[in-house]
TrEMBL record:
Main location per the UniProt record: cytoplasm
Residue intervals of the Semialdehyde dehydrogenase NAD-binding domain: 6-127
GO molecular function list: N-acetyl-gamma-glutamyl-phosphate reductase activity; NAD binding; NADP+ binding
Catalysed transformations (reactions): N-acetyl-L-glutamate 5-semialdehyde + phosphate + NADP(+) = N-acetyl-L-glutamyl 5-phosphate + NADPH + H(+)
PROSITE patterns cross-referenced by the UniProt entry: ARGC
Name of the featured protein: N-acetyl-gamma-glutamyl-phosphate reductase
Protein family per UniProt: Belongs to the NAGSA dehydrogenase family. Type 1 subfamily.
Length: 316
């Protein structure tokens, strides 16, 4: 590609925004055109991100100003509920960058491509409005999808996230004092990712999230009731076949540990354990919520949208 692809990032101060900045700075084809933050307005990006050597400063850009930037790609890494005003401003300005929204705002909108490439690659090639899946939702789908057709009744998923999953806005879920020596259950029914996965898989999933004192990484333990008896070799073969060509999903024999996934781009799935009658299966998946659960997946989607190799700039 002869010119660099300009990329604007709204929500650049946040945990996900910071990860995406690192990835874009190191990427051979994208370049940062603007980074928007209210709190850091005017501050030099290089003072916050040591891998960035240019002169860009954070700017507090409202939706109209963002729409007027003329970027090739726009990433929204904002809290839920805020994307629509940016999308409306793009439409009003007749601006049509590739948009990747990290929030849950468009995950239930059929007009947007739900970008979990390992499961939906090729469903909407050329899509310019891309909704990035939730972090737990990615872990759940990777654990459940290979046996989707064999599920009998709802699947139950017990999730534990590092507290970076709760963002930077103050809450119990990212309060170090409240998390110390603790495991905090929350949203025990009807979490948005429960609805998201149920919709994507076309099968009822029941999800129980918890937040733990570590910073990053999710452990997701999925309990599946099966229509018929399976043996372990057959289960393992299903998972190995499903992810054989996926550089960002490793299938392990043993249950993966979250301590080994933090800071890594891919997900691990393993620990396949069957009940004696072969009709109940437990599978564990891990991923870094800020990477495969957010920024890495966004970059996979951006690469694909611009016709680049999906894992360009992602260290597999
Ligand atoms: N953290 C995670 O593990 C994951 C998060 N996500 C989703 O990604 C998005 C970003 O998450 P995360 O980085 O954790 O969130 P943070 O709370 O860490 O960051 C939020 C960002 O949005 C900006 N912001 C907040 N409020 C406003 C506002 N009213 N107007 C404009 N900008 C605002 C903040 O910057 P400033 O206040 O300086 O403007 C900040 O840059 C969320 O939708 C989240 O659900 C998805 C997958 C995983
Ligand atoms: C620990 C923690 O609080 N995690 C967040 C998940 C972050 C994420 O992926 O959320 P979105 O679907 O909002 O993008 C939560 O449960 O809301």
């Amino acid at each position: 590609m002869s010119h660099r692809i300009s990329l604007g990032l709204v929500g650049a101060r946040g945990h996900v925004g910071a990860e995406l900045i690192k990835l874009v700075v190191a990427h051979p084809c994208f370049e940062l055109a603007f980074v928007s933050s209210r709190e850091r307005d005017g501050q030099r990006l290089a003072d916050h991100e040591p891998t960035y050597a240019g002169g860009l400063r954070y700017a507090n850009l409202d939706p109209t100003a963002v729409a007027g930037q003329g970027v090739d790609a726009l990433v929204l890494a904002l809290p839920n509920g805020m994307a629509a005003t940016f999308v409306a401003a793009l439409d009003a300005a007749r601006a049509d960058p590739v948009v990747v929204d990290l929030s849950a705002d468009y995950r239930f909108d059929d007009g947007w491509y739900y970008g979990l490439p390992e499961l939906n690659r090729g469903v909407a090639d050329g899509a310019r409005r891309i909704s990035n899946p939730g972090c737990y939702a990615t872990a759940m789908q990777l654990a459940l999808a290979p046996l989707r057709d064999a599920l009998a009744g709802p699947a139950q998923c017990f999730g534990v996230s590092g507290y970076s999953g709760a963002g930077t806005g103050p809450s119990d879920k990212n309060d170090p004092d409240k998390l110390r020596d603790n495991l905090m259950p929350y949203a025990l029914v009807d979490h948005v990712h429960e609805r998201e996965v149920t919709r994507q898989l076309g099968h009822v999933v029941e999800f129980m999230p918890h937040v733990a004192p570590h910073f990053r990484g999710i452990t997701l333990t999925a309990n599946m009731h099966l229509e018929r008896a399976f043996d372990r070799d057959e289960v393992l073969a299903r998972f190995r076949d499903a992810y054989a060509d996926e550089p960002l999903v490793d299938v392990l024999d043993a249950a993966p540990w979250v301590s080994r996934i933090a800071g890594r781009h891919g997900a691990e799935v393993g620990g396949f354990t069957l009940s004696a009658d072969g009709r109940r299966l437990v599978v564990v998946s891990t991923l870094d919520n800020l990477l495969k659960g957010a920024a890495t997946q966004a970059l996979q989607n951006l690469n694909r949208a611009f016709g680049l190799p999906e894992t360009m700039g992602i260290d597999t």
